[in-house]
Amino acid sequence: MITVANLSKKIGEVQALNDLSFSAENGQITGLLGPNGAGKTTCLRTVFGLLKPDSGTSCVDDIDVAIDPIGAKKQLGLFPDPFGLYERLTPREYIRYFAELSGMARKPAKAATDKVIEQLNLTDIADRRCKGFSQGQRMKTALAQAIVHQPSNIILDEPTRGLDVMSTRLLRDILIALKQQGHCVLFSSHVMQEVAALCDRVIVMAQGKVVAIGSPQQLCEQTGKDSLEDAFIALIGTDEGIAA
Ligand SMILES: Nc1ncnc2c1ncn2[C@@H]1O[C@H](COP(=O)(O)OP(=O)(O)OP(=O)(O)O)[C@@H](O)[C@H]1O
């Protein structure tokens, strides 16, 4: 479970987060939905401990990220930009490297790497260098790195950006499987279809604040609209910076 409470963060002159509070539950996919510049990335970077908030707290499984960042990270997987893989490493080397970075000893890291390679059907490419990989192969390698240490929580920043239809569908299936295993999945997006198809709960954000929280259906009911896109526009008052 991920909880942020009263998070505020000013970057330069911009109030990127403005008293932001919400939680993302285990066994659910939670979407952070907001237009460009709403503060989604800033929020996720703060939860991962990459940014320090000016005020407020973020907790991962009740561990305060500011007080025990290493403990919090053990319970948290971050899906990185799949285009930034280390090209010279094979997926097996890459995934194992991150398993050890997350604090696992050599033997368990090797066993966990073998397991996740099997789980994500990476066996065929596990020992090839990442250079030249397709989008889907990159995505699966990046995701394997995020979940190799079996964190109970996974955060993803616009995970389908740049992916083709097949890779997007594959990613969706994997996220649904993680949810069914009881993980807390939190991802950011401004793609309506993706959020409507995947999320149990949506946190609608604008200008660093929560505007509304609910299932896609609840948000439609609350605004009297038929689609999440129309509900979203009604909630934030503009269609600038969103994608259908
Ligand atoms: N390093 C930075 N320097 C200056 N301003 C920043 C920086 N990082 C974020 N901001 C500003 O903070 C606000 C929130 O940015 P953030 O990237 O969190 O939004 P976002 O919701 O992820 O947007 P997008 O959907 O476009 O990725 C924006 O106004 C952005 O310009």
From TrEMBL:
<feature type="domain" description="ABC transporter">
    <location>
        <begin position="2"/>
        <end position="232"/>
    </location>
</feature>
<keyword id="KW-0813">Transport</keyword>
<keyword id="KW-0536">Nodulation</keyword>
<keyword id="KW-0547">Nucleotide-binding</keyword>
<dbReference type="InterPro" id="IPR027417">
    <property type="entry name" value="P-loop_NTPase"/>
</dbReference>
<dbReference type="InterPro" id="IPR050763">
    <property type="entry name" value="ABC_transporter_ATP-binding"/>
</dbReference>
<keyword id="KW-0067">ATP-binding</keyword>
<dbReference type="InterPro" id="IPR003593">
    <property type="entry name" value="AAA+_ATPase"/>
</dbReference>
<comment type="similarity">
    <text>Belongs to the ABC transporter superfamily.</text>
</comment>
<dbReference type="InterPro" id="IPR003439">
    <property type="entry name" value="ABC_transporter-like_ATP-bd"/>
</dbReference>
<protein>
    <submittedName>
        <fullName>ATP-binding cassette domain-containing protein</fullName>
    </submittedName>
</protein>
<dbReference type="GO" id="GO:0005524">
    <property type="term" value="F:ATP binding"/>
</dbReference>
<dbReference type="Pfam" id="PF00005">
    <property type="entry name" value="ABC_tran"/>
</dbReference>
